[in-house]
Amino acid sequence: MKFLVCISNVPDTTTKITFSGDGKEFNTAGVQFVINPYDEYALTRAIELKEALGGTVTVLNVGEADTEPNIRKALAIGADDAIRVNIKPTDAFLVSTQIAHYAKEGGYDLILMGRESIDYNGFQVHGMVGELLGIPTIAPAMKLDINGTTATVEREIEGGKEIIEASLPLVVSAQQPMTEPRIPNMRGIMTARTKPLQVVEAVGQEAKTQVQGYQLPPAKSGVKMIDAENAGDLIKLLRNEAKVL
Asked: Could you tell me which residue ranges the Electron transfer flavoprotein alpha/beta-subunit N-terminal domain spans (predicted)?
């Protein structure tokens, strides 16, 4: 069975976010990048399924050369080989078209990725990839099992969960608690250095959106303390300043 796991390069959650002077670019200076945490669930589950069923796990990243350390980390965790599409991932459509193109070429049985990246939280790529390939997409998945050519997926819905069966090939986006993400061990780190990492050029698709500007959220204002006897003042502040009433 052939598994394709799509990973993205995102800033660590402890990163202090800043932007360029014109507010149109994210300032990457001094930023530590990591594998998108949702993608780690997808990667680990693909490796578990490979170990149980046999097959190969290929990691695909749409990004420039600076993403390769995290691609190597994915190989150290247990992926067999990797593909990097050499283009800056400027929007969800561009990323989706690259994934769909190389997924179709590779003839993969199961395409896994995180439900969304934690930097833009778009929740778009998995659906676009499925549509471009003409195969089903299930999102967001909390549990995934394979029996022959049938996948059983448990996904989150409002107020509960839903269990779905679907035939392969299939796109699945992962979230917790699908599995416990693995940490690469020393043997994995050493073998990752010799695993294939193929760099390919992007296909001729352009981004459909452009960033007009970024803004940081407004600074938090000071806390106002209201005496318990002055409940009326609290109501006025909630209505006139906080505007939540």
From this structure: 23-209
Q: Count CB atoms within 10 A of the CB of residue 177.
A: 8
217 secondary structure, DSSP code? P
Give one word for 180, left, alpha or beta, with left for phi > 0 and alpha for psi -120 to 50: beta
Query: Whole-angstrom Cα distance, residue 149 to residue 153?
Result: 13
User: Which one, of 63, 46, 62, lies nearest residue 5 by Cα?
Assistant: 46
- 208-245 pLDDT, tens digit each: 888 888 888 887 777 888 888 888 888 888 888 878 87
What is the rounded distance in angstroms from the CA atom of residue 112 to the CA atom of residue 5? 5
Beta-carbon-side half-sphere exposure of residue 61 (alpha carbons within 13 Å): 32
Summarised one tens digit per residue, pLDDT across range 83-108 is 999 999 989 999 999 999 999 989 99
Tokens coding 202: 């992007």
pLDDT value at 118 more than 80:
yes
State both tokens at 82: 């990797």
Question: What is the secondary structure of 81-123 as a DSSP string?
Answer: EEEEEES---SHHHHHHHHHHHHHHHT-SEEEEESS-TTT---
